[in-house]
Every structure is written in structure tokens, then in C-alpha cells.
Amino acid sequence: MKLTMKKKQQPFISAVIVAAGSSSRMGEGVNKQLLMIGDMPVVAKSIRAFEQNELVREIVVVTRGENIMDIAAMAREFGFNKVREVVSGGETRQESVAKGITCTSKEAEYYLIHDGARPLVSQHTINAVIADAMEYGAATAGVPVKDTIKRVDAKSMVIQTPDRSVLYITQTPQMFRAEPYRQALRQAEQKGLSFTDDCQLFEQAGHPVAMSAGDYTNIKITTPEDMLFAQILVTAAVDN
């Protein structure tokens, strides 16, 4: 999807790349953000997608404290001129995102939040989310569920089979109007609530979120198997 707007009409979009997780499911001592995928590290590939998007004005990267220098050097090495700051994350994703948005420009009208571990996000997906968020106030990338889903109880007994036709796998990026997002964040903090999904944070404050067309290749690297699959996808793209 290509957005055609005159420059003066373009909103100020600040991208926040969240790469502050522990990588615990990748194995001891492995930081998935710094693993090589194709010709660059995972997090650099994620940053590049937003660096190349003409509607994104700036990028803030949120990472673990020990990785700040490495990622800052990476930004210089690959010429990522939109990277405004690389900052340390918090104890939870919600805290990490909050730290990231406090480092964005005061002019920011929208926050475009993305997982650093989703390095294969396409420009089509980014632009679809931007277009829908500008229309509805908030949007997330997602894809329809392919498999049948079961709800189980504490004893792992099936208690419900939801209608697959209304179920989506939520991805990132996710984009929100800046002021309502900040209000939702303050409200959650006051109530002592912590969410692992930014849309859920926005929803609990009573705001609607649109589901934008994502891509099944926009995978999140969480386990060694995900990394293998991502390498296959990158190799296939180069070969084609």
C-alpha cells in the first residue's frame, strides 16, 4: 500500500523498536537481537525497515543496557540516520515502551511500535498499519488464524472451540495516536496493570483498534527454530 500525501500533510510518526527482552527461549547466553540474519543482525534488519519508510520521521530503539553501545554503533555502521536515541528498557514490555516514547520528539503525533525480533516486516505491512491508524486512531498488523484453536481448563481439558473465522494472530507494528496512548499508559500504571501487548493497553482505556493486513512471513524470532525459518525466508528472497 503506497500512501500519497503532500509533505506538509504527513503526520509526525515516531517509531519505537523494542529489543529489550531476555531471549530466554533462544538458549543460555544467546541474544537473538544480535544474531546474524542474512547480511546484518536481527535488530538492525528491523531498524532498517523503518529507516527506509518515507513516512517514519525518527526511530528510538529500546534495548538491554549492555547492548546500547553495540546497537548505537550498528546504527552508525549501517547509516541509520533516523535513529534518534538508543535507550535502556524496563522490567516489562510496557515499561520498555514507556521509556521509548519518552525519548521521542515532542512533535510526535503517532507512535509506531515494533518488535525488534520481527526483522522480516515488509513496507506493505508498515504502510497498511499507518494508513489504518490514521483513519481509526490505532491499528495493528495481523493475519487470520489457520489452525483450529482450543480453550482448555487448568487440567488441560478442552472447554471451547472458538470460531476460527474471527481469530487473528497479532503482530507488530502497532500504531497509536500519541496523546491517547500516553493517557492509556498513565491509566494502566495508576491501576497497577501491565500488558505484554500494546493494543491491549489501548483497548483497556476504551479505544478501538483496527486490524490491518499483515504477512505470515512477519515472524517473531523467539526460538532457534524461528531463526532457522527466518534464514530460509531470507535466502529464498535473495534467490528470487
Brief synopsis:
This protein has seven helices and eleven strands. The chain is an alpha/beta fold and 240 residues long. The protein has a single domain, classed as Spore Coat Polysaccharide Biosynthesis Protein SpsA, Chain A, CATH 3.90.550.
Write up what this structure looks like.
By secondary structure, the protein is of the alpha/beta class. The protein has a single domain (11-235), classed as Alpha-Beta Complex (Spore Coat Polysaccharide Biosynthesis Protein SpsA, Chain A). Helices cover 34% and strands 24% of the residues. It contains seven helices and eleven strands. It has helices at residues 42-51, 68-77, 93-102, 123-136, 178-191, 198-204, 224-239; strands at 13-19, 36-37, 40-41, 56-63, 83-88, 110-115, 138-144, 151-152, 158-160, 168-177, 210-213. The strands form three sheets. It has a seven-stranded mixed β-sheet with strand order 5-4-1-6-10-7-11, sandwiched between helices. A two-stranded antiparallel sheet has the order 2-3. The protein has a two-stranded antiparallel ribbon with strand order 8-9. Strand 2 and strand 3 form a beta hairpin. The longest helix is centred in the last third of the chain and has 16 residues, at 224-239. It is globular. The two termini are 22 Å apart.
Annotated CATH topology:
Spore Coat Polysaccharide Biosynthesis Protein SpsA, Chain A
Distance between the termini: 22 Å
Apparent shape:
globular
The secondary structure category is: alpha/beta
- The CATH superfamily label reads Spore Coat Polysaccharide Biosynthesis Protein SpsA, Chain A
Strand content: 15-25%
* Number of DSSP helical runs: 7
**Count of folded domains:** 1
For the secondary structure, the number of strands is 11
- Please write the CATH class name: Alpha Beta
Element-by-element helix/strand order: EEEHEHEHEHEEEEHHEH
Q: Mean pLDDT, nearest integer?
A: 91
Radius of gyration: 18 Å
Low-confidence stretches: 1-7
Largest sheet: 7 strands, mixed
Strand order of the largest sheet: 5-4-1-6-10-7-11
Report helical residue fraction: 25-40%
* CATH architecture grouping: Alpha-Beta Complex
